[in-house]
Each structure stands twice: as structure tokens, then as C-alpha cells.
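User: Can you fold this complex?
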Amino acid sequence: MGITGRKAILFVIVSLIVVAVILSIVYTQLYGSSATRLRAATTTSLYATGLLDYLSHHYEASHPNVVIDYIAVGSGEALERAARGDACIVLVHAPSLEKRYLEEGYISNHVIFAYNYFVILGPKDDPAGVRDASNAVEAFRKIYIAGEEGRALFVSRGDRSGTNVRELMIWNMTGLDPHGKDWYLETGQGMGETLVIADEKGAYTLSDIGTYLKYELEGRLHTLTVLYTNSTELINIYSAYTSTRCSSEEMGDGLQFIEWLAGSEAQSLIAEYGRGEYPHPLFYPAAGKIEYLQEAWRILANG
Amino acid sequence: MDSLPSIVARSIIISGSATLIATAWSIPLAYHASTHRRLTPLVYAFEALVGIPTVLVGLLLYALLSRQGPLGWLGLLYTPQAIVIGEALLITPLLVAVSYRVLSEKSRELWELAATLGATSSQAARLVLSESLPGLTSSVIMGFSRAIGELGVALIVGGNIAGLTRTMTTSIALYTSMGEYDKAITLGLILLAITVTFSILARAVRREWE
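Assistant: Here's the predicted assembly.
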């Protein structure tokens, strides 16, 4: 290749790189800000219901130097990302997984900040008779029997999310294993997608109440209805932790945020969230029930 | 929640930067390979990687950029720059493979002809390059379309953070998981409109040249 050909190519390369650098500078000018960013890995159910944006909107109003970046994934992935130090705080609802990460020293500063309930959903005509069950384990056993007889389907998240972990725990308590059965479908997707699939198929499923109410209100669900819920066995506890791999600066912001979550301002915000919009509260604040919730958390963590 | 125009603008800027960077190394590489036969196996390797799954690129890059990973000290994870790097890597095989095709075809057609007409090798090289421009442009547009339409890299190394790394595809995934299908479909259609517009533009440019 001749000198001029090389020069032309070099010129093209240099100009492309210059353009890319200029674009990225413009980008940082437009979108960057001086506030410190606090990364929070969180479960999809907290994020998709809008609760976290609502809380951080209020938090950032009184703490203008911090911007909270949410990374919404399943509880299993959220804990793993915090364990690697890629997120400084983690908001999850899977006590048995949380316990493992706590014991291995990846996360600390446990704060319970909210709770609600899981619900067993199914078609209105309830072919398995879940409505008559006296507890969640019996309800699952009825679904298993109906499934084996070809009268019912069950849709599972199958993604190691908090909801999936709880579902597997209930199956475990029945002493029956639905895996591999042709009536047991694992979606591997978020709660919302799983609800839609269960609804389309006229199947049973386990959901957190928040996602269900949101989908129900938006008219996405046609056959699914709440067949069983219970305030003790199906309690769903949301906890916040800091990662032990945070930098010291992040740790300060992270601790401040999770302490704020447990404080009176955030607790009353959680109590008010969705009032007037939904027929039932989406989340209940943990304040005033901490000891009860800690006990329930211990029981769930020990499976 | 981010506003729709800023999500669209962010996607175009991120994928556009990724395309420019990938172009800066892919086309010279393809040109070099078209003039040096011993580099042909490299091109075959790139051709084999054209369909590399976006989640795989995302996961590998995540392992590299994670705080525990070898490049963790750069602090790039969950930044727009991380998505730019990932998308640039993602579309490199496509850009190299397609531009190699164009360049080697044109140089086969034109090099000897130019030489017999008495052109110096640099004149011949310039002729090949300028005759290849329309084809190279379409390879760049293809790269851009793949970058802006991919989800795996943006979701895994970007984290879908509102106001920072939320792109059109990650918003579509989020809106879907929130049950807001109308918004998801609207964004999907905008994305489609952008890629179609770019390919029409490329075609127009091509026609202009030919």
C-alpha cells in the first residue's frame, strides 16, 4: 500500500476516534452530574410496582448529593451482584438466600423495611379446590393431586427469585416434588410475565400481592383470582442490606439510605403508597412490628 | 422514570459511539486482511462470530468489569461507556466480515485493471476504497442496527439504570415486566422506525454514489 493510502486510512481512524471522544464528552456533559451515585440491586417486585422510585424521589429531595441507581433483577441475582461489590445496597425478599450471604460475610446491616403477603392465584372455577384449603401446604397438595389427574396446571417463576424460593419451600413442606411433571411449567421470567402466562393458561401460581394488584388494576388478567392467602404462613418480608465490599464512601451513603428506609419518614411513605389507587395496600411498613417480622424472618431463613 | 426522548437520544448516542469505535478498527482490519492473504483465517474466525449471542458478550464483559474482575478498578460497570465497549465488541465480527467481502471483491475487480492502466499502488488503493464506500456504508449501518437493537449487553453491563444507562431495548424489557405493554410496543415501533430510516438513508447514499 502506498504512503497516501496509509495516510488516508490513518486520517479516517483518527477522525472517527475524535468524533467518538467528542460524543462521549457531550454525553457526560448532558447526562453526568456531580452527585454521588449509590447502586442498589433490587428485586423486580419492588421496582416494577414503582415503590422504589417513589421512595428515592423523596430521599433525593432531602439528600441532594446522592442519586440512587436501581438495578432491578431477581433476588438471587441481586444478592450475587451485591456480594461481588457491584452494588452497594441490596433490597430483597428471600430470607433463606439472604441467610446464606449473611453467613458467608458478603452482606451486613440487615434492616427489615416492609412486608406484604404472597397469594395463591388460580382460575375462578378452581378445579383443584384451593379455596377450601386450610393452609398453604394443603393448597399446594391439592394442586399437585389435580395436576396429576390432568385437571390443573401450575406456573412457576423458576428463576431463584424471592417468590420462587418461597414457592419451592412450600412444595418442600408438602413432601411432593413437582419438577419434571408436565403440568408444572417454569417460565424463568419476572412475576408480571408469569402472571400473564398463568392467566392465559388458566393455571395456578404463587405471586406477591403487589404485582398481582398492579396487573389486575391494569386489566391484564382475566381468569386469575386470589384463592388463598394467609397473614402468617404467606408473609413476604422485604429486607435491605449493605454489601461488605462497598467502598467506605459508598458505605456511608448506603448505611444512611437503609437507616432512612427504616425511619419514620420512609415508613409512613410506604404505608401511604398506592392508597386510593389500589383496593388494598401494596406494602405494609415494618415499623411497630419489627420483633414479629424478625421472628418470621428467622423461621423462613431456616426453611 | 426517564422521559421517552432522552431514552431514544441516549440509545442513539450509545450505539452510534459503539458503531464509530467498531468502524475505526474493523474497516482498517478488513482492508489489511483483503491485501494480506495470510490474514484470511482471521476473517473466517470473525465470520464465525457474527452471530455471537449478545448475552454472552454481556456476561463476559460483566465478569471483566465487575469489581472482583480483572478490569474492576476501571469502575466502568453500570456506565454508558461499558455499553459502548460491549456493543463495539459485539458488532466487530459483523463489520469485519461484511467489509472484508466488499473490499476483497472490489480489489479483485479493480486492482489489476488500475495497475495495467498505469496507476501507482496508492492510487489503486484509493480507487478500491472509494469504490467500496457504498458497501462499507451499508456494513456500518448493519452494525449500528445490531447495536441499537441488542438487549443482552445493555442489560447486563448497563444495568438499566434510569437516567444513566436505560436504553430503548432495556426500557422495552422493563415495561414488559411492569405489564405496560402499550409503552413497550410504542418504544419497539420507534426502534424499528430508527433502524428502517437508517437503512433507507444508506440505500439513498448508495444510489447517489453508484
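Residues 131 and 167 of chain A are 18 Å apart (CA to CA). The beta strands of chain A are 36-43, 66-73, 89-92, 107-123, 154-156, 184-186, 204-208, 224-229, 235-243, 284-285.
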